[in-house]
Amino acid sequence: MVEIKTNESLAAMRESGRVVARALAAVREKAAPGVPLTELDRAARAVLTEAGAGSPFLDYHPEWAPVPFPAVVCVSVNDAIVHGIPDGTRLAPGDLVSVDCGATLGGWAGDAAVSFTVGPARPEDTRLVAAAEEALAAGIAAAVVGNRIGDIAHAIGRVCRDAGYGIPDGFGGHGIGRAMHEDPGVPNEGRPGRGMKLRHGMVLAIEPMLIGGGTDEHYTARDGWTIRTSDGSRASHAEHTVAITDDGPRVLTAL
């Protein structure tokens, strides 16, 4: 079932979204060569604590995962696409880092992700990150009243495929509200004009994920969480929580 949010609920979700945005900014500021991934998690935790917010990631335990998730952010480096567990691994110059963060505040969730390089960026990484951001912008632009989920999926997929990148099958966006994951699912590729019709008050987490090598193949690492590219190529991830409104899409997780 899809919950239609009131205007008051959308305003409350904007507050949780601001916390997510601040946490991602703090992580990005902390990231530097030699910094362990656990420090990025600590930076995000400090923002959540200061805001009085909870984490929908910490101790999240879906049925497919062997253990609960142990952090408040997913940190996926280089060939990791999503769900990377921040451990003692230290960042190196040129690493491509994707950080996914959520927050709950006042009973409402927010969810967003950003990718960036540590130190000097390889040109191919710059293009990959830019394509993920372009795909996200295209998906958001399609998130208007009267359109359908397939229009968002098609907009995202067209950017990814036109740029020559792969799209990991089975991963995509989702509804969000009182829980981090709600109906409907939002694929990163699809046919326009198909799927659920968009209405004022729907809120979606739109999140393209791109595989730099151009294939769609991926696998789950031994930790049971981290999703990696099968060809070892790098990946990029971008995400915002977006409200569908009569005045157009409203990004709730922007600074």
Automatic annotation (TrEMBL):
Positions of a divalent metal cation 1 binding: D100, D111, E239
Positions of substrate binding: H83, H181
A Pfam family matched in the record: Peptidase_M24
Catalytic reactions of this protein: Release of N-terminal amino acids, preferentially methionine, from peptides and arylamides
Entry GO terms, CC: cytosol
CDD domains referenced in this protein's UniProt entry, alphabetically: MetAP1
SUPFAM superfamilies reported in the protein's UniProt record: Creatinase/aminopeptidase (SSF55920)
Keyword Ribonucleoprotein part of the UniProt annotation: no
Ranges annotated as spanning the membrane: none
Location of the Peptidase M24 domain: 12-246
Domain of life where this protein originates: Bacteria
Positions contributing to a divalent metal cation 2 binding: D111, H174, E207, E239
One GO MF term: metalloaminopeptidase activity
Keyword Nucleotide-binding: no
Names of required cofactors: Co(2+); Zn(2+); Mn(2+); Fe(2+)
Swiss-Prot/TrEMBL GO biological process terms: proteolysis
Annotated EC: 3.4.11.18
Role description: Removes the N-terminal methionine from nascent proteins. The N-terminal methionine is often cleaved when the second residue in the primary sequence is small and uncharged (Met-Ala-, Cys, Gly, Pro, Ser, Thr, or Val). Requires deformylation of the N(alpha)-formylated initiator methionine before it can be hydrolyzed.
NCBIfam families tied to this protein: met_pdase_I
Family (UniProt): Belongs to the peptidase M24A family. Methionine aminopeptidase type 1 subfamily.
UniProt name for this protein: Methionine aminopeptidase
